[in-house]
Fold these 2 entries.
Entry 1:
Amino acid sequence: MKKKIILIVIMSMILYITSCSYKQNNGADKKISKSDFMLNTYITITLYDTEDETLFEPIFDYIKQLENILSIHIKTSDLYKLRENAGKEYTKVSDETIEVTKKSIEYSELSEGLFDVSLGPIIELWGIGTPEERVPSKEEIEKALLLVDYKKVKIDEEQKQIMLEKEGMFIDFGAIAKGYIADKTADKIKELGIDNAIVNLGGNVLLLGTKSDNSDFSVGIQNPEEARGGYLGIIKASNLSVVTSGDYERYFEKDDKRYHHIINPFTGFPSDNNLKSVSIISSTSFESDALSTTTLLLGLEKGLSKVNNLDDVEAVFVTKDNKIYLSDGIKDKFELTDKKYKIVN
Ligand code: ADP
Ligand code: MG
């Protein structure tokens, strides 16, 4: 009997050792990465378990192709055409534009109008993050606000066309496009035969699969006071997307006041509540991106209760006085690393 137990112990030790060396040989370090400047930000694609650098070309080409459809800054894009035809007629658009517009309107409804994809004229007026950034006059804001109303964005799904009902209106997908593109890029990566990858579109992170040894990726939750990549805590996750919205991302300062890039469509001014940032963790980047902007606009109380009422969505809220509020499902998964912050719930 004793001999049998010893044998089992030895056998399991051998098994353990071989599984460890298997992990080391095929381990987490077998990956390739490539970065580029696209979507007005730095993007990095990391592919696990491959050395085939030629895979990057179709991936980056695909991201560019989506940008060409969805960016208001590109003159041949669907959004640009919609702007030109605003107040005049319906415009045929791609499936991608229909999909992102539909999702945006869902979030407008969920946020009682705080998330508004038709905010283009106001965003352009402020020009935050561009050489033209400035504080507009009250009159300018009032005038531009007359052109903002997501209810005037009409989608004809059958004919695949969209119309902006008032001349001068235009759509800006800045709050949602990176999330959509991250999910589509992950699909492309899977099509190319890769199961495990990280898609990082300027901090909009999607974790596809797991690391090579089947363990979770560690992903940092952005520290709103540090340059991109600095984190305040980590979570371990796989098959998830983490997206942060905050007042630190694009802003300028004038007379000691910070003017950031997420704007309240009711006032025409940058959203002003007790939040510094919100990170959303969910299974799709589309949802994480839309919801991080939405919850930042909603503020702590409403935002947190929205997240707690959604299945499979978690969040880390950071307030201006460095307090962290976690959604119910993430409390045992989040590890705080920057002690300047305090978890309070
Ligand atoms: P980031 O672009 O930094 O990742 P977000 O996803 O939060 O951050 O999106 C911010 C962008 O969304 C702005 O730069 C602007 O283009 C757009 N935007 C700003 N305010 C709103 C709003 N209330 N509703 C919809 N889009 C907005
Ligand atoms: Mg967003």
Entry 2:
Amino acid sequence: MSSSYDYLFKIVVLGEGAVGKTAIVTRFSHGFFRTDYKTTIGSQFAVKNIELIGDDGQNVTVKLQIWDVAGQSRFQILRPMYYRGASGGVLVYDTTRKRTFLVLEEWLAELKQAIGKDIPLVLVANKTDLPDRVVEPAMGRQFADARKMPYLESSAKTGEGIVDIFEQLADVLVRQARQKRQS
Ligand code: G3D
Ligand code: MG
């Protein structure tokens, strides 16, 4: 297996505690779901290569360094350090807890303040396998549309929608990088 790649991007995963950030990253990078995650302390990252097809029809290998940032407020002081150098972000909420949706704007503000510019993001409505959903798809979609980000639904438990999150983000990042190169 080759370890070469065409692009390397740092991605940060953010959102309230227990929305499923660690579960999403684990599911994507290792392909399994565990229910005994220790609360993320500070931060940790996973590395995974994905293959995309570029506009020119050629394969593009993208190496993603995915930072799983601790969501608890006691880690707030540390988080800006982990955001630095991020090319893109995954903003996650839990469809069964309204509060996690209502605070999304605060996460965006924290990220923007730390890195001083807008970066491509995707909004992820997680835990869609659970029956007690309270945040309807229309609400998530509206939030995402207003901020020009893709809206995706996922379940780290079943695996549904997980690969999509990272493929869509990588695709946007590759396009952006190619445009910059040309200009
Ligand atoms: P965090 O990293 O955002 O803090 P975790 O969140 O990944 O630690 O997940 C918090 C809890 O939600 C965990 O449950 C985890 O198993 C569960 N979870 C994460 N994603 C999903 C999902 O898509 N569906 C369901 N049903 N549960 C999910 P525990 O009980 O281990 O604390
Ligand atoms: Mg975690």
